[in-house]
Amino acid sequence: MDNLDYIENFFTGEPGADRTREFEERLLSDPAFAEEVAFYLTALHTSREASRLAKIEQFKEIYRKNRTTGPSPVRKLVFYIAAAAVVADEYPNVPELSAIR
């Protein structure tokens, strides 16, 4: 098995006590293997960070596209309801407006 495959299997699988002890002993006794583990962990961290930053930019772009300018539709609705209430109060004898009161 290739060292990188071995390293990846160790970090992605469920290591047992024997497997962990063997891995740690190899780290201490084999400097080249320790370098490969360091490379793997650095590459994994860099990849995850790049992915996280890409997601942030993607969500920012979605926000920019969907952002509305000006008052929200709900705020406009409040003004229409207030105007309807004033009209209904000013003209109490209009049958069409009696349902509003």
Question: How would you sum up this structure in a few lines?
Answer:
The protein is mainly α and 101 residues long. It has helices spanning 3-12, 17-29, 31-66, 73-90.
Describe this structure in words.
The chain is an all-alpha fold and 101 residues long. The protein has 4 helices and no strands. Helix 2 packs across helix 3 (31-66).
Observed structural traits:
101 residues; 2 domains
Radius of gyration: 33 Å
Shape: rod-shaped
Structural class determined from secondary elements: mainly alpha
SSE order, one letter for each helix or strand: HHHH
Main sheet attributes: strand count, strand direction, barrel closure: none
* Uncertain ranges: none
Helical proportion? over 70%
Mean pLDDT: 83
The N- to C-terminal Cα distance equals 81 Å
- Proportion of residues in β-strands: under 5%
Q: How many strand units?
A: 0
| Count, helices | 4
Total discrete domains:
2
How do the strands and helices of this protein lay out in sequence?
Blueprint: H1 3-12, H2 17-29, H3 31-66, H4 73-90
